[in-house]
Design a protein that fits this description.
Helix content: 40-55%
Largest sheet: 3 strands, mixed
Number of domains: 3
Structural class: mainly alpha
Order of helices and strands: HHHHHHHHHHHHEEEEHEEHHEHHHH
Number of helices: 19
Strand content: 5-15%
InterPro entries: DUF247_pln
Number of strands: 7
Transmembrane segments: 469-490
Keywords: Membrane, Transmembrane, Transmembrane helix
Shape: elongated
């Protein structure tokens, strides 16, 4: 390690102790039970030797709703879905800082931090850079934040992410040693956990500093926008069947994103601009006797849920794989003429993590239409799959039709995933994107009284050619027996007369 770099590390360590003492004193006098701890940066501003000079060309506006950027998930949701909302190898931000499973990565984060600072050169004051890039950043975290997590640690996390993205874009893909090579897949998913984030404006400021001092760098020349690098990193080589691989950069404009997960969220729902299924016309079905519209077949009000896929198939509902040639919209589920069309969903451990965190973020950013909660598309999709999948038999129905591409150990694991996730909804999901479709399914399922028995008979006795042949043979024997009986009766009657 070169001499200037060693000196810089010593300065950081002393400043960290000094700032921590100031934070402790301020916190003891000002913190209350109802508010979060005072951001470390505000107290750090009392240190006289830190002077912040913001260059006009790199100034970044801080979002107004800064205090709601990153929210800690409730304990019951994390406990019910263990492994989906907890980082496995790398902690980012204060909520998972010090977690035992992430301690081995701390040394690698330091190494990436120093590698990024080397790109800026010795003429950059590291204290000023920390003050600039982390200004008001600690206010983005809701609830109480550990005093052990300082702005210097936040700066290190930001530098780690930016250096990781730059190395990947340069072709190294961060496989600089065996540990990083083995952990790269886990790091990929850890960076998409809803409360394992740093504010996006911190990353933006760091990347602007990188471009400022590396104007001739191939990454800076090829990707003037940080969003472009992030899109390439998280969606290369078709990581998810339901997220568009290598999407056009122009489809995702520059915006005040909250964090990395929000960018991925926008990629998932960006083509979801068609009218909601709630606006689609419903289809009415009549039973064979033609009395479903009368009081004879009329039932009680429609339930809010629908039966599982296996039961619906027994009652004549067909499941069809909806295939799009160019773009797959995972939320484009329709029901028409006894057929429910659903796009393919490839489920593995990685897609479980991403879907669960998109599900959580979809509810954290919920919108209101007056006093009514507008349920987002990801939450609606989870509610739909939770209704369709109750047991392994339901999973097998969707697998046979190619709707579920199951890469997990067994069908029970898929059913357990959707059931546990669906039970942890943070908002009321009684009125969601597929509410009218549910009503349509129930109208067919409940009102077709004669069709139910006919379809049940057909599904049980006409599933394959052998059962059909057996049934036909039984019918022929029955007919022959009936004819023989009638012939015997006629003979007996003729003899009597």
């Amino acid at each position: 390690m070169e001499r200037p770099e060693t000196t810089t590390i010593q300065i950081h360590e002393s400043d960290d102790v000094q700032e921590q003492e100031i934070v402790d004193q301020a916190t003891e006098s000002l913190i209350t039970d109802d508010c979060a701890a005072i951001p470390a940066q505000e107290t750090a501003g009392q240190v006289p030797e830190i002077a912040v000079e913001v260059a006009p060309e790199i100034a970044v506006e801080v979002p107004e709703m800064i205090n709601t950027t990153i929210v800690r998930l409730p304990m019951y949701m994390r406990q019910a879905n263990k492994g989906l909302f907890e980082p496995r190898v790398v902690s980012i931000g204060p909520y998972h800082y010090g977690q035992e499973s992430t301690l081995d990565m701390e040394a690698h984060k330091d190494r990436f931090h120093l590698a990024f600072l080397e790109r800026l050169g010795n003429h950059v004051n590291h204290q000023d850079l920390t003050s600039l890039c982390t200004e008001r950043a600690m206010q983005c975290y809701s609830g109480k934040v550990s005093r052990l997590y300082t702005t210097e640690k936040l700066m290190r996390d930001g530098c780690f992410i930016i250096e990781l993205l730059i190395q990947w874009e340069e072709g190294k893909k961060a496989h600089v040693d065996d540990h990083m090579r083995l952990m790269s897949n886990s790091i990929y998913y850890d960076l998409l956990i809803v409360d394992n984030q740093v504010p996006f404006f911190v990353l933006t400021r760091l990347y602007e500093e990188f471009k400022r001092y590396n104007r001739e760098n191939t990454v800076a020349l090829a990707n003037p926008r940080l969003v472009s690098i992030i899109i390439n990193f998280f969606n290369y080589n078709g990581q998810f069947s339901w997220v568009y691989s290598n999407p056009p950069k122009k489809d995702l404009p520059d915006a005040d994103y909250r964090h990395l997960l929000e960018i991925q969220y926008n990629l998932v729902i960006r083509k979801n601009v068609s009218p909601s299924n709630n606006d689609e016309p419903t289809h009415y079905y009549s039973c064979l006797c033609g009395m479903c519209s009368s009081n004879i077949c009329r039932k009680s009000p429609m339930p809010l849920g629908i039966p599982g896929a296996n039961e619906l198939q027994d009652y004549g509902v067909n499941f069809h794989l909806k295939e799009n040639q160019h773009i797959t919209d995972m939320f484009d589920v329709t029901f028409s003429h006894k057929t429910m069309s659903i796009p393919r969903f490839k489920i593995n451990f990685g897609s479980k993590i991403l879907l669960a965190n998109l599900f959580a973020y979809d509810q954290i950013t919920v919108q209101l239409d007056g006093n009514v909660v507008v349920v987002g598309p990801v939450t609606s999709y989870v509610a739909l799959m939770n209704a369709l999948i109750n047991t392994k038999k339901d999973v097998m129905v969707l697998q046979r039709e190619g709707i579920l591409d199951n890469l997990l150990s067994n069908e029970e694991e898929v059913a357990s995933f959707f059931n546990k996730l669906g039970r942890c909804a943070l908002v009321d999901v009684s009125n969601h994107r597929y509410t009218h479709m549910f009503e349509d399914v129930n109208r067919y399922w409940r009102n077709g009284c004669c069709c139910k028995h006919f379809v049940t008979f057909r599904m049980k006795h006409c599933r394959n050619p052998w059962t059909c042949l057996s049934l036909m043979g039984a019918i022929v024997l029955l007919c022959l027996s009936l004819i023989s009986m009638i012939y015997t009766i006629l003979q007996y009657y003729n003899r009597r007369h």
